[in-house]
Amino acid sequence: MKRKTGAQILFECLKKEGVTDIFGFPGGAVLDIYHQFKNYNIRHILVRHEQAAVHAADGYARATGRVGVCLVTSGPGATNTVTGIATAYMDSIPVVVFSGQVPTMLIGNDAFQEADIVGITRPCTKHNYLVKNVEEMAITIREAFHIASSGRQGPVLIDLPKDVVNEIIQFNYPEHINLQGYNPTYSGHLRQVNRAFSEILEAKKPVIYAGGGVISSNSSKELSDFAHKLQIPVTTTLMGLGCFPGTDKLSLGMLGMHGTYKANMAVTNCDLLIAIGARFDDRVTGDISKFAPHAKIIHIDIDPTSISKNVRVDTPIVGDVRDIFKKFHVLLEDAGKINWKNKRKSWFAQIDKWKSVHSLDYKQKDTIKPQYVVEKLYQLTDGNAIISTEVGQNQMWAAQYYSFDKPRKFLTSGGLGTMGYGFPAAIGAQVAFPKETVIDIAGDGSIQMNIQELATAVQYKLPVNIAILNNGYLGMVRQWQELFYDKNYAATPLNTSPDFVKLAEAYGALGLRATKPSDVVPVIKKALKSPKPVIMDFVVEPEEGVYPMVPAGAAIDEMILL
Amino acid sequence: MKHTISLLVENKPGVLSRVSSLFSGRGFNIESLSVAETVDPKISRMTILTTGNDQILEQITKQLNKLINVIKVIDFKSNEYVGRELALIKVNVTEETRSEIISIIDIFRGKVLDVSSGSYTVEVTGDENKITAVLDLLRPMGIKEVARTGSAALTRGSKTKTSKGKKQ
Q1: CA-to-CA distance for A218 and B123, rounded, in angstroms?
Q2: What percentage of chain A reaches a pLDDT higher than 90?
Q3: What is the pLDDT of residue A334?
Q4: Using CA atoms, how far apart are residues B135 and B120, in angstroms rounded to an integer?
Q5: pLDDT of residue B2
Q6: Which of A117, A315, A384, A459 has its CA 20 to 30 A from that of A545?
Q7: CATH homologous superfamily, domain A3-170
Q8: Contact at 8 Å (CB) between B7 and B43?
Q9: A109 pLDDT above the threshold of 90
Q10: Rounded to whole angstroms, how far apart are CA atoms A157 and A69?
Q11: Are residues B99 and B66 in the same domain?
Q12: pLDDT-derived band of residue A169, with 50, 70 and 90 as boundaries?
């Protein structure tokens, strides 16, 4: 056993957790930690704003399934992480944030760069810690990684006062942790599983409504097997995109406010809704009293608080989605022999009728349609790229027109709806997968919320692609103003955006512009070949809207179609 | 509907704040809250009096269970627990009211803790209804100040819910 400083203990623990990359930004309170990077084989990615550090760690976590890690200094460094932490919290993403803190004897003194970050982040972390003495350092880090990555995953923050980081002790790695009050339920109750299964067998018009929980539990294959064996159509939430192949015959696409006609109609008319790792968010349900009104509801979720929070549930099963699929699988032995395709003939005939309403059709005319850009991105990457998005119209078009066949390929801020998320998240994913194509589908508004990260992408030679659907508006807000506020475009026109091509060049990235439909394909092809980060500036139809759309507060079958 | 919830929590800094900010952040109501160490100094017990319908109460207990520092949540149904709170009441005293006040305090098995020329400070313990009744009776004499603790509660019978903090 060696004597080590708190900072060295931190690195020893990170090594044990298998951490290879940290996104961060240095400062006075974390100088001693940064001093240790040279002694450990952990890569540090210097972002240009701490919010981006958390988004990058979050994108890294979503793309890999591993815990994303970031390191920031005290005070403003720590407070800048709040939006990133809240984003990860809403979407249940495992992230561990280390923040510096002023020395313990100065805490509470309004010291320089002091902020009560533990107090500030209490409501938006799964748990957080202030390490008051160095003896607690190792056990705290172990607990933090365990909490972040187990149960319903989420962000954990650890606040490290400067003196604690400097203290020297005999270091013993804690092999065991004992969290008396934390024991997430993984195993689904067998009686509930059996009950749900017999309801599934009895149902005539079942629909699976799958969410991000299928991805975080790595159960995509199990879901696919299950749906195919029993011939049940699947709709996914925004967070669930990719958990079931978008090109599969059983796929209904996304449901909810901007969901497909077929998905929303199927949910409204089904007799059994099987919710898997989803939480009945208001953007999914619309008017909750008219959501799946004829259906029994089975709800599978690892978080008991999600159950019966928004919707009354007939058969809840608390547990890990993967475990519950395993239990279903055993029951499938006999049921799998029935010809379900035949049995569900009339249900599929009905669904085919809804499918014939092509709710995502659009017409490409003289100006570039944003939908066309996303479709071309899909075709030219064979649907294999990692796509991140900002928030607003760009996010919805990405969700609607890029068909995801695999999980962990779509990174988007679903719950919090954070503009500025997509680009740093793309950087995080590219750090994890240097050889994959990563594209941030952005708007001209939201890209400017973390545009400074171009410097990061250039510095680390990360060939991230940014596709700006440039319509000169804060488009989603403008769309609401068009529909519900008499076209009063208050504060939504963006007529003084920078020249994004020049901006890219100024940072040392590649800038490309497409102004007419015939430019789109060449621009994308050129971007995909570039070893440098690229901004593609697509000048698109300014007042194009996202459709179908369910007006806020309406039932999801009351869609405005294009 | 009023409801008493008892929590066993780790006796650590910030835990009270986690619990109370959960209530405020999710729009739940706290009528009263009391907290103190249990026989095990590493564990504290919080007793929270809250209001809400069944669905809200279900959410409250589930959300509390989700907090890492919360070891156990006990949701008391009426009749299966004993609950007591304590009130200190400073009441005006005159020649005319002195004997009446003393007899009220006697009936409620209270105690006079402090006597001055114009006032008594009395102690009363009991369930919420009893405390309210005492206050109603003393109010005509002129109550100068009141300090109430909020309820502390335990289950009836010999079963304990303190040991083996395993959550459902």
Answers
A1: 60
A2: 96
A3: 78
A4: 14
A5: 84
A6: A384
A7: Thiamin diphosphate (ThDP)-binding fold, Pyr/PP domains (3.40.50.970)
A8: no
A9: yes
A10: 10
A11: no
A12: very high
The whole-number pLDDT of residue A93 equals 98
User: In angstroms, what CA-CA distances link B48 with A74, A132, B6?
Assistant: 35, 29, 6
For the segment A472-484, the average pLDDT, to the nearest whole number, is 97
Contact A123 B25 (CB under 8 A): yes
B54-98 confidence digits (pLDDT tens): 889 999 999 999 999 999 999 887 778 899 999 999 999 999 999
How many domains would you assign to chain B? 2
- pTM of the prediction? 0.95
From chain B, pick out residues whose CB is under 8 angstroms from the CB of A309. 59
- The partner residue sitting opposite B68, judged by closest CB among A127, A304, A305, is A127
- Token pair of B159, please? 């079963």
Q: Where are the beta strands (DSSP E) in B22-142?
A: 29-37, 43-51, 70-76, 81-92, 111-115, 119-126
Element holding A54 (H helix, E strand): helix A50-64
CB contact under 8 Å between B62 and A147, yes or no, is no
Give one DSSP letter per residue of A129-165, joined into a string.
Answer: EE--SGGGHHHHHHHHHHHHHSSS--EEEEEEEHHHH
- Tell me what ipTM this predicted complex has: 0.90
Contacts with A130 from chain B: Cβ below 8 Å: 13-14
Q: Is pLDDT above 80 for A301?
A: yes
The model's pLDDT over B151-162, given as tens digits with 9 standing for 90+, comes to: 999 988 887 765
Mutate to test the interface with B, among A128, A147, A180 (most CBs of B within 10 A): A180
Cis previous bond, A463, omega within 30: no
Say yes or no to pLDDT of A187 above 60: yes
Class (C level, CATH) for A190-355: alpha beta
Q: Strand pairing of B81-92 and B152-155?
A: antiparallel
A381 with A528: CB under 8 angstroms? yes
Which residues of A are the active-site residues?
50, 112-113, 162, 476
3-state SS, residue A93: coil
Overall average pLDDT of the A112-116 stretch: 98
CATH number at residue B46: 3.30.70.260
pLDDT by residue (tens digit) across A223-258?
A: 999 999 999 999 999 999 999 999 999 999 999 999
Of the candidates A122, A126, A179, the beta carbon closest to that of B17 is on: A122
Instruction: Judge whether residue A185 has pLDDT over 70.
Output: yes
Determine, yes or no, domain membership for B94. yes
Q: Taking CB atoms and an 8 Å cutoff, what residues of chain B touch A90?
A: none
Note the pLDDT tens digit of each residue in B13-39: 999 999 999 999 999 999 999 999 999
Interface of B with A (CB under 8 A): 9-10, 13-14, 17-18, 21-22, 25, 55, 58-59, 62-63, 65-72, 165-167
Q: Is the pLDDT of residue B164 over 60?
A: no
DSSP assignment of A295-361: -EEEEEES-GGGTTSSS--SEEEES-HHHHHHHHHHHHHHHTTS-HHHHTHHHHHHHHHHHTS-TT-
Q: Is the dihedral of CA B159, B163, B164, B165 positive or negative?
A: positive
CA geometry: angle A296, A299, A301, nearest 5 deg = 180
Residue with tokens 């990860």: A88
DSSP A550: P
Do residues B75 and B91 make contact, with C-beta atoms less than 8 angstroms apart? no
The boundaries of the domain holding residue B113 are 82-152
Angle ∠(A417,A418,A420) on CA atoms, nearest 5: 145
Asked whether the predicted pLDDT for residue B166 surpasses 50, the reply is no
Nearest CA in chain A to B18: A122
Q: Which CATH architecture has domain A370-539?
A: 3-Layer(aba) Sandwich (3.40)
